[in-house]
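Lab notebook, bench 4. The sequencing result for the construct came back, and we need a structural model before the next group meeting so we can plan mutations. Quick request posted to the team channel:

Model the 3D structure of this chain.
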Amino acid sequence: MIEIVAAFGIVVGGMVAASSGLGTRRPPAPPAPVESDPRDPIVLDVDLPCPWCLAPTTEADRRCPSCGQRFG
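Done. Here's the predicted structure in token form:
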């Protein structure tokens, strides 16, 4: 008789756990997008691609350091 009560308790406990979502994981929320602040200073020394060879350049470059094409 005790075995039947114990088995019944285990079955009911499992059903309660399954119906409550115990053990299920939700994927993490994606990170919030970072919005730029219009008051941030403009950085001019950033890498820009060369329009001819797509090599990284800076705003101060007069020629592409990779292919030698003249800018402007």
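The chain is about 25% helix and 5% strand.
Will bring this to the meeting.
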